[in-house]
Amino acid sequence: MHPAVSFAGKRKVVTNLKIVAKTDKGKIRESNQDAYAVGELPNEIAWAVVCDGMGGHAGGDFASKLAVKVISEKITSCFNAKMRDSSIKNLLDSAITAANIEVYDTADSHSEYYGMGTTVVCAIVRNGSVIVAHVGDSRAYIASGDSLNQLTTDHSVVQDLINRGKITESEAEHHPNKNLITRAVGIDKAIEIDFAQADLNDGDTLILCTDGLSNYVSNAELLEDIKDGQYYAFADRLVKRANKNGGGDNITVVAIQTNIGE
Q: Which of 56, 131, 230, 231 is disulfide-compatible with 18, CB 3.0–4.6 A?
């Protein structure tokens, strides 16, 4: 897990939020088991949730949509602009925990949904900073100029192998267990959630995505597709790029760009 970024100095004021999103089933899959939701709250605050379902056609689709619904409702009903960062983290924690209970209980009581689960990455952006919570291998990035900072660390078999020094980053790209995750919403009664926090500078873009993007679009390609600042085209371009590069999975992209004053 990347260390949290500490905040110091003058308070940042977001003067404009630009949000775009797109989901696509890709070129190989018969259905789209990804789901997402985005929204804005008063005082230039944005939130987003992205999920990638697993557990067969019916199960994966249901799990991702249910998790998005529960998390979205929790954020929109409970968020308060006066919350401290620690309270926002607690809100995201309780939202994902509630989703985990809903998905787990549904799978436990309906045999057709047995074994279903979903990844999740969700974020709240305010005052020139972002707080991210995630489970699984859906990711959050900050694109800033010519650099791309991955805020999340995959909960996956391959990432565990990298962490233990068993394989390299380049070997991981083509590893046969690349798609096996070690955590998911709805698989167990208890869930472990990771968090990240970072500053956003003027013109930075927060990207939330499923592995249908990250497995098929390189960091360099991602930056290339958003470098001109035409935010309204970001999600569409990245989905098209993933499909051009094979489109072997469902693809979901949320992009949030900020304009910041002091």
A: 231
Please write the tens of the pLDDT for every residue from 148-187: 999 999 998 777 777 777 776 766 666 666 678 999 999 9
Q: Cα-atom radius of gyration of the chain, to the nearest Å?
A: 17
Instruction: State whether the Cα torsion 179-185-187-189 is positive or negative.
Output: positive
Residue 97 structure tokens: 């925990």
Cα atoms in the Cβ-side hemisphere of radius 13 Å centred on 207: 30
Containing 97, the helix (H) or strand (E) segment is helix 85-109
Of 125, 113, 155, 127, nearest to 19 by C-alpha is 125
Who's near 240: CB < 8 A, 6+ residues apart? none
Please answer whether residues 117 and 183 qualify as being in contact, where contact means their C-beta atoms are separated by less than 8 angstroms: no
Residue where the block lists tokens 């990240």:
196
Collapsing DSSP to helix, strand or coil, 172 comes out as helix
pTM for the predicted model, two decimal places? 0.90
Largest interatomic CA distance in the chain? 54
Adjacency order of strands within the sheet including 205-209: 13-24, 251-261, 205-209, 139-144, 147-150
